């Protein structure tokens, strides 16, 4: 503990942020890395683009008021994902990728790194899953008893040196060792009962080595992100996690003395540390960053904090509403009562989850724009609050007044409250949430739809080709008339229908060519939402989304999808599945108003969807899929908060889908595989058919479903569409074989893991052909 007594760091008096967007305001990194993947540029070109982007970020952050000399500027760059980066730094490349590591340098090049992320040839990619309760995805590390940890890549040191050479003393950001291991899965072949966290003692020396190297390069602070400690959903009991936390930071901070190591800031974004806070405060780390937007403030002083910097995360890194600066200053005053050596202003999470700059949205209504803060505005808020904290509220009186005025304006602006929407919701009876007996529905649907056993279908989208995107961009710019644009989309639907008929699929889709994104599209067609032009946020790797802003009461001014689905149905004798995005997912992938409970907002969206489904049914569409891939994502990280969430989320889905006749088949689709824990909620949705991701985890998901005796239709994905790999017919046959062994064949559907929008036809056509051929093989094995 000797090191902490020599700490005299004042922390970050000008404020700090936990991280900043990495893809660039015009998605520069996405463009650079995708052209490398396409073989059009070299790894050096990508490195140069990345270095330019890092320089731009640092310059911008200094301009916005962060201090370039006290390590308040984080360095959190990544080519794809920070969890994969951590694995690469500590040498934990799964054995199956060992051939990608250069035997002389012991390093992975950008091509090898990309292969782990995306797969290539026979190399299946690492598993990908959601990062806490966000729409960001990380690559799951694979750790076994024999994984050799070594300091394999000094990229964090090189990036620190690069910044220093440009006059900016950055704070390198790394995924902390405890979170890294808690998020990892046991490598294939690990013995029963083995858990990656068992390897903590072997991993810590590598982190120590890295910290030592960073200190030698001149780093004064390093940030280690430990969000696993705010979540009960991670695969460890909280006592185990806390024990690991104490072990880790006793070793890294207590046993390793400064200046051999930099000061350590342990960050706990996304929620509340709970009992982990006093435990962490008892170690010799130099700073703790708390999420004071999602988390609570302890009631009084915390023992151990008196030697530490407390970074008070009062500016929301997860949403885009302008901060209530007065309330944030109150919170900072309260944070001062915890007894820390000093309090610095911070963001609650990295700013990775918000777009760059609200000033880059010229088309946004100016009234709405005044309510918003994107990453750059949030850095400004941090600087203002730091000023107010240091010099008193009078010093920032103008900014406080502007913040209160924006809030007051938000409360009273037209459209924020629409009485007719509120009255319709208040008048709903219990009946609006129930569909009636499944067995009767199943019989009515079977009689109407006449499908073969193991019906084949897709999840909705077909490839978003460059031509489709160009047309949409031209239409948005006014260069292509609406008439021409819609004619092109109808021609695309015609092609997609013909292809599905040729391949022999049983339930057809229209392919969603007219949608820029499954949430943004609906937001653009509903009242109460605003869409952005440049508000890109990284979702995974090079893939980005522009989350819409849900600012007012939601209503549907006119049918949205009906004409597209009806047109599709006119082209084929096969059943056509209508395609909507569910209320929970629309909320999860938007920036949602924070002035009323999420459940109320969800029900407003649900009513709009209920009307859309009624119109689809009236237009003769017999199957409607309502996607809820984000149902798991919004699940609160603390177990105590989960039942209330599951209650409103499931109810809103039922409100959307319960208005139909019993012979109308409702499908839903959920991505991601850890559904064991929400199996009851999936059951509660009461959908007739549910498709889920299963291929990347080799159908492991079927076990909890079979154990729970799940009673309705289920379509475990047999093709991992997140990878450009084409699965062989044999591979699909094997996955389907596994499925029929655990799920009753009459409830089993055959489909890919997810939509095909990110894929190319050269992958889609053979993969779907393999899927249909494999289905025929497996059908032949079924008892008559
Ligand atoms: N919101 C959301 N979250 C989600 C998913 C999802 O589908 N939506 N799926 C899961 C996985 N995440 C994903 C996230 C993004 C994408 C994706 O494909 N994103 C696209 C952008 C989609 C989009 O907004 N497309 C627009 C804009 C396309 C574009 O880049 N246009 C060019 C111009 C066109 C040209 O000349 O090529 C430009 O703006 O520069 C459109 O089609 O209209 C990308 O990164 O490339 C896929 C999956 C989980 N979370
Ligand atoms: C992320 S879930 C995607 C569902 C949507 N229907 C699609 O096929 O793209
Ligand atoms: Zn999906």
What descriptive keywords fit this protein?
single chain, 784 residues, alpha/beta, TIM Barrel, five-stranded parallel sheet, 27 helices, 21 strands, binds ligand 39S, binds methionine, binds zinc ion
Question: Under CATH, the topology of the largest domain is which?
Answer: TIM Barrel
Number of domains: 2
Known CATH architecture of the largest domain: Alpha-Beta Barrel
> Structural class of the helices, strands and pairings?
alpha/beta
Give the C-alpha Rg.
26 Å
Strand content: 5-15%
Number of extended strands: 21
Q: Strand order within the widest sheet?
A: 1-5-7-8-9-10-11
- Name the overall outline: globular
Bound molecules: ligand 39S, methionine, zinc ion
Summarize model confidence as the mean pLDDT. Answer: 95
User: Low-confidence spans: pLDDT under 50, at least 5 residues?
Assistant: 1-8
How many DSSP H or I helices? 27
Separation of termini? 72 Å
Helix content: 40-55%
CATH class of the largest domain: Alpha Beta
Largest sheet, strands/sense/barrel:
7 strands, parallel
